[in-house]
Design brief:
Blueprint (H helix, E strand, L loop, with lengths): L1 H6 L2 H44 L2
Length: 55
């Protein structure tokens, strides 16, 4: 019975998958934040141009 636990790697595999999923989630969050900043800057640029064109 003890040898079975020594050769059982299913727990390690689950941890590896959890780490990979965590890293992918982190990459998505960072990418979305960066994209949001760029979109905001783009909208602010358009708003500034529209404001200056109406004056």
């Amino acid at each position: 019975m003890g040898r079975h636990f020594l050769h059982d790697t299913s727990g390690a595999t689950a941890i590896e998958y959890a780490l990979i999923a965590g890293l992918i989630s982190l990459a998505i969050v960072v990418g979305a934040a960066q994209t949001g900043k760029e979109v905001k800057a783009s909208y602010e640029n358009v708003a500034d141009r529209v404001t200056s064109a109406n004056q």
